[in-house]
Amino acid sequence: MKKSIKRVVSLSLCAAMAAGSLAGCSSKKAEPADTATTAAAETATKAGGETSAEGETTEGAAASDKPFDGVTLKYATTQTASTGEENQKLIELVKEKTGINIEFYVIPSAKSGEVDKTLVSLMAGDEIDLIYNTKPGLKAFYNAGVLEPMNALAEKAGYDIAGTFGDYVPEFGGDVYGLPAFSDIWITLYNKQIFDDAGVDYPTADGWTWEKYIETAKKLTDSSKGIYGSLMLDYDCYNYMYALQKGWEPYKADGTGNFDDPLFKESLEFYYGLGNTEKIQPSILEFKASNTPWNAFATTGKYGMFMCGGWVTSILNQFDKYPRDWKVGLLPMPYPEGTDPSTLTVPGCYAVPTTSKNKDAAFAAAACMAENQYTLGMGRVPARIDLTDEEINEYVENSLAKPFEFDGLTVEDFKTAWFDSSRKALSEKIIGDGDAAISQAIIEEGQLYGQGAESIDDAVTKIQDKANRAIEEDKQ
């Protein structure tokens, strides 16, 4: 598989961001001045009846603006997500704009190593109308044959998928299988208090390389105070992020794994070396032994910098849940010296399962959710490419930057970190044959190497072997 490298969506909207292929149906595109309703409203109108020359609708006119008014759909999610503020706001928004009622179909969360329980439920034939997952995550649902292709649904509704979302859409086998609501872009967060205490100047986005990151983290690390200059988590993508930024592809041209590429080995050494050699963050052994939580940057105040997906900013302005008296700074993701600036990213999407009994209404709801979720004030970066410069600037100022007035973060800080048109966007997740098993192998063998339980060469060999077996099994 050849992983596409796109440019991050620019303020001039000249390019779309994220891995994947352009797909969708051709139809009239929403006018920029009417983006509050946009294509979701157009979908409802077209589904309800054609408009006459005088602006009157034909038979069924009374319901043409909300043709699915009163329809109830089942949205599969976890108990925690169903009670979360964002999902509660989201179903209210859908009700307001489309008249559709959404009920949560609560499914237990899968434990590490378990198959997604929503996938299990769908494979058992449970009637579900909407699901949410990342673009890579939807691949497993596609492989299982439980997702409804959206091209025909969009054509029936007169909906322009490509004109609304561009390259963000999850496309498999030539069809679109989800509508992206937002894209999670990786960033660097930093604790200004730790910088101040160490007498270190705040870093800038210009020339923010990994070399500069490590140099800065060393100045911040103070073992006597239990302070590390850096924090990263144990996700699979940390193992290969450095290789991706240097141009590595997870699959060779013949479809086999590319984990015996020297760049992948270098990436493993780089990531685990941050804790084992550079000593700027907990080693993977310390990280696992102490059960370091994912929100440790926000809750402990003991880490100078945190490099992760931008979704983590959503907890930093929740002072009731995560109180802090220190201020946070924001930068893009670092990149290897001598390469072009780059970042990891993954779109979050809404999809319609094959078990839905009302797929047209489910598509209308998915379109509404995908188009409007970013407006809910939860710090999302919209996946839509049809927004104007003015709309983006207004959104950044009022939704992204405003909640961080305490920290002194500016509109320009957010634009630089999240809307840099010159920054390459690389898929956070491996997408292709055997991808789930490959990710697990990378975590297992990578951590064994990081903990000193096996050599780097043994880890690479085992990952390559496991990857090729997973690829072959997926093809059968």
UniProtKB/TrEMBL annotation:
Residue ranges crossing the lipid bilayer per the database entry: none
Swiss-Prot/TrEMBL keywords: Signal, Sugar transport, Transport
Record's keyword annotation contains Transport: yes
Low complexity bias locations: 36-63
InterPro entries: Bact_solute-bd_prot1
Record protein name field: Multiple sugar transport system substrate-binding protein
Family per similarity comment: Belongs to the bacterial solute-binding protein 1 family.
Region feature (Disordered): 36-66
Alphabetized PROSITE patterns for the sequence: PROKAR_LIPOPROTEIN
Superkingdom, taxonomy of origin: Bacteria
Taxonomic lineage from the root: Bacteria, Bacillati, Bacillota, Clostridia, Lachnospirales
Signal peptide: 1-23
Provenance organism: Hungatella effluvii
